[in-house]
Design a protein that fits this description.
The protein is built from 2 helices and 5 strands; from the N terminus they run H-E-E-E-E-E-H. By secondary structure, the protein is α+β, with helices and mostly antiparallel strands.
């Protein structure tokens, strides 16, 4: 289930309060919201974004590059 564009526009990273990039789950990455500045990926489970800092996944250089190539 894809997140609505209106919701994506409203959500920000709880740590730096900046915008997030929506990863729709195509291209090998799980559905998630991504903060490229901090390289943190917030999971989307059953259509609900999990916006808890303690539950983020920090991406390494290679995964960050792959994700950014996917969104551009």
């Amino acid at each position: 289930m894809a997140l609505s564009p209106q919701l994506i526009e409203l959500l920000v990273c709880p740590q730096d309060k900046g915008p997030l990039v929506y990863l729709d789950g195509n291209g090998g990455s799980p559905e998630a919201l991504y903060n490229p500045r901090l390289r943190r990926r917030y999971a989307v489970r059953d259509g609900i974004p999990v916006m808890l800092i303690d539950e983020t996944e920090t991406l390494d250089d290679a995964e960050h590059a792959r994700v950014m190539a996917q969104v551009q």
